[in-house]
Amino acid sequence: MEGKTEVGPFQLMSAITTTAVLIGANVGGKANYMAIAWCAPCGHTPPSFMFAANKTHHTNKGIIENRSFSINIPSVDQVKLLDWCGLNSGAEVDKSALCNNFYGVTHTAPMMPICPVCVECSLIEHHDMNAHTVFMGKVEKVYANPDILVQGPHGPAIDTQKLHANMFSFSGPSYMGLLAPHAVPWSVGAEFDPKDAAPARRSNEFPRIDTALCVGCGNCVGSCPKSLYS
Q: Is the pTM of this model over 0.85?
């Protein structure tokens, strides 16, 4: 296309920043953690997350065996801990001694209390993606430090700025802090000139879903009759 330069898919992956996390699982009866950059939410009914891990990771077999894992989000002040877990394999070093690990309702997903946010998940399924395995898990419990919480419309909510997680980029590569907010989603688009493109179809109000009525159809960002749009 005129005005565009074709680049490879890995160049695209390098340009996208993601939150770097520590995935925890019991392996051989011991808590172990691996650093993962490709981790993201993948559904809200049930609340679920997915991540991709190279097949060489020692932690993978513990996730499959116990059908559980944790997502621990370190702050930028803990970047050395995060990177150390990525540099060292649990097959060679004992990572269970890094902190006083704690467990929740799954009983087999170790979590790091030193991280501001710990997410406990039960494994839904996993898929072979050649060099990587993609894991999907249902969120069972979320544990957060009180000092990163703010009062939201439906109770305590995690403040992204206070969490100050490590953003990872293959470009460099580098760890980065979160940039300052510059626009409000589901709002700033109202200022766009419709003459330049098709007008936005979404409501200016963030979709507030009535969880008692939600059936998980996936129309929550649209015109779901069971949502609480004004």
A: no
